[in-house]
Design a protein that fits this description.
binds zinc ion, alpha/beta
Length: 305
């Protein structure tokens, strides 16, 4: 559905202070901005039905929040079946062991991570709260709604941590930085969602990276971090999206969210990510053979389950 959200990727014009760490990357938190989670329930609620079959490999836990401030996040995430939806995508993969998705209190730390020892993806209430605080109250000049600004990064973060889980559980060899690889796989999956879902997650997570990028302090330690800089993550996401479908995502170029020099190689970058996914992860999927369209249908159905 090209053109449904105009434009698809650019960041919002102004956003109050963000403070989220991503996957252990809470190296430069700023004081949280004011905000409420009142809109969250509406953002995450879904009328859809039961989840896809994952052979019982995916376990979902919504820990009761310890603070009243997180109650609304708990209810909205649970009612929206947010963990279940991402878990349903990963459940398409035949895993050697059970994988747990858990939303929990993290003693003030806005973070998310995958823990190999417990085979679990943890997302902190504090991280969701920081995303809610960072989301603009009204639709941005770029056309990004508050709903997308909240939902997009939550889905991206869950897919990113899921990618770490897949690397570990499937013994996927990784060349280069694992954090970059996790972003690549997360982007590849989100670009296979239904067009409307993909555009919204893309817009929201792109805006979130841009927000964090604007606030990031780039000193020497930033270059030593295992994560790329937020603006690098922004452009990597933009490039993969544009490379996946130049027509659908032409607005990324039009909005100056991708320099022409980088854009020239994005189709190849996407092909490289697709080749790696087909080679290393697709053989573990429950259904075979898996061409691009069948993969798309499977991901779309799981996410909407
Ligand atoms: Zn990570």
């Amino acid at each position: 559905m090209p053109g449904a959200i105009r434009p698809s990727f650019p960041p919002p014009a102004s956003v109050p202070g963000a403070g989220a760490g991503l996957c252990g990357g809470a190296r430069r938190r700023r004081p949280p901005g004011r905000g409420s989670v009142l809109a969250l329930a509406a953002c995450l609620l879904s009328p859809e039905g039961a989840g896809a079959s994952d052979g019982g490999q995916i376990r979902i836990v919504y820990d009761p929040p310890k603070t009243a401030a997180h109650r609304e996040i708990h209810d909205a995430m649970r009612q929206g079946r947010v963990l279940e939806r991402v878990g349903a995508i990963v459940g398409l993969v035949r895993l050697p062991t059970r994988l747990t998705y858990r939303l929990e209190d993290c003693a003030g730390e806005p973070n998310a991570w995958y823990a190999p020892e417990s085979r679990s993806v943890t997302v902190c209430y504090e991280l969701i709260a920081s995303i809610v605080r960072a989301a603009p109250r009204t639709q941005s000049a770029a056309g990004i709604t508050r709903e997308d600004a909240i939902r997009g990064p939550i889905v991206q973060i869950l897919l990113h941590e899921s990618s770490h889980a897949l690397f570990d559980l499937l013994d996927v060899p990784i060349l280069g930085r694992e954090e970059d690889a996790a972003d690549q796989v997360a982007s590849f999956i989100l670009l296979h969602l239904a067009p409307a879902d993909a555009r919204r997650v893309l817009a929201g997570s792109g805006a979130f990276f841009a927000t964090l990028g604007r606030h990031e302090i780039i000193d020497r330690s930033a270059f030593a971090d295992v994560h790329g800089l937020f603006w690098q993550r922004f452009y990597n996401l933009a490039c993969l999206a544009y490379g996946s479908d130049k027509r659908r995502y032409r607005v990324i170029l039009a909005a100056n969210d991708l320099p022409k020099e980088r854009a020239a190689g994005c189709e190849e970058e996407f092909s490289q990510a697709a080749f790696a996914f087909r080679k290393l992860i697709a053989p573990h999927l429950r259904m075979q053979p898996l061409d691009g369209e069948r993969l798309r249908r499977a991901f779309r159905a799981a996410f909407r389950s």
